[in-house]
Amino acid sequence: MGTSERRAREREEMRARILDAARELFALEGYDSVTLRRVADCIEYCPATIYKYFKDKEEMVRALVTQDIAALMDTFRPSMEKQTPLERLRSFGQAYIDMGLNQQNHYRLMFMTPLLPADDPVYAEKRNDPQMDSYGLFLSVVQECVDAGLFRPQYRDAEWIAQTIWAGLHGVVSLHIAMGDESAIDWRPAKARALFMHDLLMHGLFADAYRTEVPAMPSQMVCQNAA
Amino acid sequence: MGTSERRAREREEMRARILDAARELFALEGYDSVTLRRVADCIEYCPATIYKYFKDKEEMVRALVTQDIAALMDTFRPSMEKQTPLERLRSFGQAYIDMGLNQQNHYRLMFMTPLLPADDPVYAEKRNDPQMDSYGLFLSVVQECVDAGLFRPQYRDAEWIAQTIWAGLHGVVSLHIAMGDESAIDWRPAKARALFMHDLLMHGLFADAYRTEVPAMPSQMVCQNAA
DNA sequence: TTACTAAAGTAAACACCGTTCACTCAGTGA
DNA sequence: TCACTGAGTGAACGGTGTTTACTTTAGTAA
After folding, report:
1. Contact A203 B205 (CB under 8 A)
2. Is the CB of residue A173 less than 8 Å from the CB of residue A194?
3. Which CATH code fits B1-53?
4. Which class is domain A68-210?
5. Which of B188, B204, B224 sits opposite A203 (nearest CB)?
6. Range(s) of chain B covered by CATH 1.10.357.10
7. What's the gap in Å between the CA of B196 and the closest CA on chain A?
8. If you average pLDDT over residues A14-32, what whole number do you get?
9. pTM for the whole thing?
10. How far apart are CA A121 and CA A119, in angstroms?
């Protein structure tokens, strides 16, 4: 008899319904609108019901973020179809920059908000699976580049390289999201800075054979602070 | 008669008392404990009183952050006493890394939380004053390095260079704060990565005459992902 | 069919939160 | 003396996450 399987499936569907409602609320009205009461309203249940499916709000949001990070895969899929590891690496970086700058609310929730680790059984199994895990996917691209001898011989730790490139791009994107409105700072355009960061890191990491010319610093707004 | 001056002074003292209480609460118990009611309790006033001094909570927190960013000056002062621009630049970066990794709560509030710009008259005048503004101070160090011919000839925009270095270090620090607990990622040590990022950016930005050997990727935990 | 049980779902409360409003009251200037 | 200004307040409002005791529902076993 498959009743217990059906129960588990229905329970999973209800969890999905809750998360979908929360995601839609977040997309439409921003993070502050994602309250348990409003989520409960959307799915036409009372707020307390959500506690039958998630320990607390933190766990619900964490499950949502975990899903969304996994869903980033779709953003990066086109990059994976490039021919060479180098092209995949470059395309990946550009896709990441565009994603971060174009979806700032989502980016902030996914990568700028400390949340306790979730132990969602549905997504735990997808960890370390390059097909589902964006970081794992990026890591595999970096590993391909290591294997292809793209990087300097002393740079062989793919984790280290991946984390460094990620941090560089994340730095530009997240600083722009958090401080881009700070008028006391004469910000240069964020996207151009992100691309410059990307090229500069590539240039520093690449082996001599693959290093191209020194990355350019777009000049149309240079020198206003030069002596 | 100096009564109006005294009134203004007393008003400023009260503002300071509110901010000090908020800062202590934040330092002792974290951001979530900084509620208007608890701040009011600390200074033994009723919550509504705070609204006589700040438009709302956002403005209060923003004033606190502005003060704390200005106070970062003290952290960076020793770096300013180094002899050469190059030494000042390197020391500044290291001080920033230590500050970010050692005071994660403060870092998160200051640089990872988007807040609307404050128009606090007391601190507005201190903007763009290198003596008070940490970013301005860093910018002036970068400008010294530009003037000293430290960077490649095509890199002359001090704002651009400063924002790139800042973003690189911020990327490592903020990613560690937000995602450092993510067990699905096999993180390399944050401080070593931050120093590596620093050296890698320096190496990429410096003119040939000042470029030293290729920055090392600490090896004690390398190769566990190599093929 | 019926009694039992485990889970789903809920109404109501609790303890907070930021914010507003009507109010008191002391100090000030005319 | 008197009107006025601004600091400070108590009480409320509408909101939040969360818990508790309760009802309802659905599946199981006799």
Report:
1. no
2. yes
3. 1.10.10
4. mainly alpha
5. B204
6. 69-210
7. 8
8. 95
9. 0.90
10. 6
Q: Which residue has the tokens 């390197």?
A: B90
Q: Do A114 and B178 touch (CB under 8 A)?
A: yes
Take residue A8 and report the two structure tokens written for it.
Answer: 């588990």
Average pLDDT over residues A29-52: 95
Query: Out of 3.40.30.10, 1.10.357.10, 3.40.50.300, 2.60.120.290, which CATH number does the structure's domain B69-210 have?
Result: 1.10.357.10
What does the pLDDT look like over B15-36, one tens digit per residue? 999 999 999 999 999 999 999 9
The 8-class DSSP code of residue A224 comes to T
Phi and psi of A206, rounded to 5°?
Answer: -70, 150
Fold of A3-53: Arc Repressor Mutant, subunit A (1.10.10)
Predicted confidence at residue B121, as pLDDT, reads: 52
* CATH 1.10.10 location in chain B: 1-53
CA of B49 to C1' of D9 (A): 8
Among B185, B212, B213, which would you mutate to test the A interface (most chain A Cβ atoms within 10 Å of its Cβ)? Answer: B185
Distance to chain A for B180, nearest Cα, Å = 9
Lowest mean per-residue pLDDT among A74-78, A143-147, B33-37: A74-78
**Inter-chain touch A193–B135, beta carbons under 8 Å:** no
Give me A4's structure tokens: 């217990």
CB atoms within 10 A of CB A129: 11
Q: Which nucleotides of C are covered by protein (CB under 7 A)?
A: 7-12, 16-22, 27-29
| CATH 1.10.10.60, chain A: domain bounds | 3-53
**pLDDT reported for residue A71:** 86
Q: What is the pLDDT of residues B162-189, one digit of tens each?
A: 999 999 999 999 999 999 998 889 999 9
In chain B, what residues touch A184 (CB-CB under 8 Å)? Answer: 127-128, 133, 135
A72 close to A124: Cβ distance less than 8 angstroms: no
